[in-house]
Design goal:
The complex is a heterodimer of chains A (184) and B (302). By secondary structure, chain A is mainly α. Chain A is 78% helix and 0% strand. The N and C termini of chain A lie far apart (69 Å). In chain B, α1 runs parallel beside α7, α6 crosses α9 and α7 packs antiparallel against α8. The chains are: A mainly alpha (184), B mainly alpha (302). Chains A and B meet through α1 and α5 of A and α4 and α10 of B.
Chain lengths: 184, 302
């Protein structure tokens, strides 16, 4: 009698561990998808700011053609990107191009002082931050997922749940990743 | 020293302190049993009930009650788009929903977070903090407040308050019963050991004090944890460190100084000298700054 009870209890405990491990993997996988969707939302937002920004800068610095072309090309590239690596590469190119555009703007005091440019600049900087934070959040989620896929006991259910390790979102821009180094 | 280790250490400490509170409840129940037998134990569910009702009502409606107690007014995005942008940035970093935002008309710089769960979260800022802090500092403050939301500190402090409340009510009842001659009841005949009786008396007298100390210690741990979690959101200890330095340098305090809501502000609104360190709801601000500086010194650990 009591041995049956123990066996039943043991089976129940193992079943519970299985269900919990399976659910955890599925949940982590969904949160990685959600985090990636958030990156795309923010990239889209940044993309939408560009025509307006380019027009405003053009009004003061029409001859800086190569800079505008770079931004427009980066934007075109980002709309066609689908895989994580492509999106990340297009994102990096866009960040570079925008930096170039803002550097151009630095040379035109009238432009810098215009209300339109100032509000665009604020919007661009908050969007840059949102893009950066959504990347970081995505990578944190990928880190948890990947470690769950590799570690016991959740690794046992990875196949069952059809969950695999995911790629990190890596932007090829060293200045993005380095935290400020403060010495005392 | 990285934020992950600091987070883990503070979570473990919170657990230990809550466990300590559990032991304290056990000790009080033991004392009740020794002194009054079954009559004493009968009071336990009664005391826990009172504590539950009084604390959990305010936990459930924390977002609205705290608004009234602090005089904060909820605002919409069009009233301060820059602040909303900043909060949205940190919300994305934390993966939390955008919280409700409120403003307290007060020139002393301070901020707090409340709400029973992340969906009901509200963070509030005094007009003073919005005036004196730059973007990076405010980001640190917002990250600290959203960390309280992410770590469910309204829930943790409600649990601590309930336990401390139950202990206070129990000891109060039992000591009164003692003065009014309760101890001579018939239930007690098995417990004539005078040492056990004296020990129980000491427990009953000291328990409420110990509960308050444990509750304050939990609050201090949650503040330290929120600082570390804030760094995990922004990966920028400098912003929060500079914000705390601004708060430390400023010696104005928020007008309403109700002790009931003192623990929710980022900087304690109570005058430092009036509260002993052991009873304080916040770690000393210099200590918090020093911890953040250690995180700044090791950026490669992120």
């Amino acid at each position: 009698m009591s041995t049956t009870l123990i066996i039943v209890a043991a089976i129940l405990v193992i079943a519970l561990i299985c269900v919990a491990g399976y659910n955890r993997l599925v949940r982590l996988n969904v949160s990685v998808d959600e985090a990636f969707a958030q990156i795309e939302v923010q990239l889209k937002r940044r993309s939408d700011l560009i025509p307006n920004l380019v027009e405003t800068v053009k009004g003061y610095a029409a001859h800086e053609k190569s800079t505008f072309d770079a931004v427009v090309a980066a934007r075109a590239r980002s709309t066609s990107a689908t895989t994580i690596t492509d999106v990340a590469a297009a994102d990096g190119a866009m960040t570079q191009a925008l930096r170039g555009l803002l550097a151009v703007a630095e040379a035109y005091p009238d432009l810098k002082a215009s209300a339109n440019f100032l509000s665009l600049q604020e919007e661009l900087s908050t969007t840059e931050n949102k893009v950066g934070f959504s990347r970081q959040f995505y990578n944190d989620n990928v880190r948890s997922l990947n470690s769950a896929v590799k570690t016991f006991p959740s690794n046992l259910f990875a196949n069952l749940a059809k969950v695999t390790s995911r790629a990190f979102y890596e932007v090829d821009d060293p200045s993005d990743r380095k935290a400020p180094n403060v010495k005392f | 020293m990285n934020f992950r280790k600091i987070q883990a250490a503070n979570k473990r400490k919170t657990f230990e302190l809550l466990f300590g509170m559990g032991l304290l409840v056990g000790a009080v129940v033991y004392a009740a049993l020794t002194y009054f037998g079954k009559t004493g134990v009968g009071i336990v569910p009664f005391a826990v009930g009172i504590a539950l009702i009084s604390v959990w009502g305010s936990y459930w409606a924390s977002d609205t009650i705290v608004l009234t107690m602090t005089g904060a007014k909820e605002i919409v995005e069009s009233e301060n788009p820059k602040l909303f942008d900043l909060i949205h940035e940190v919300a994305i970093a934390s993966g939390l929903k955008m919280p409700k935002v409120a403003i307290v008309q007060d020139s002393a710089p301070n901020a707090f977070a409340t709400g029973r769960n992340p969906d009901k979260a509200l963070i509030a800022f005094t007009t003073g903090i919005l005036d004196v802090m730059d973007r990076e500092e405010l980001q640190g403050v917002i990250a600290h407040e959203l960390s309280h939301v992410a770590n469910r500190d309204t829930l943790v402090s409600a649990v601590a308050a309930t336990t401390a409340g139950a202990i206070a009510i129990l000891s109060d009842f039992l000591t009164r019963m003692m003065w009014f001659g309760g101890g001579r009841g018939d239930d007690r005949e098995n417990n004539q050991n005078p040492l056990a009786l004296i020990f129980s008396l000491v427990i009953l007298i000291l328990a409420p004090l110990a509960a308050i100390l444990l509750r304050s210690a939990i609050s201090r741990r949650r503040e330290a944890l929120a600082d570390a979690t804030a760094v995990s959101f922004t990966r920028n200890p400098t912003g929060l460190r500079r914000a705390l330095e601004v708060l430390a340098a400023d010696n104005t305090v928020v007008q309403q100084r109700s002790t009931a809501v003192a623990h929710i502000w980022i900087e304690s609104p109570l005058d430092g000298s009036s509260v002993s360190k052991l009873f304080s709801t916040h770690p000393p601000i210099e200590e918090r700054i020093a911890t953040l500086r250690r995180m700044e010194a090791n950026p490669e650990t992120y």
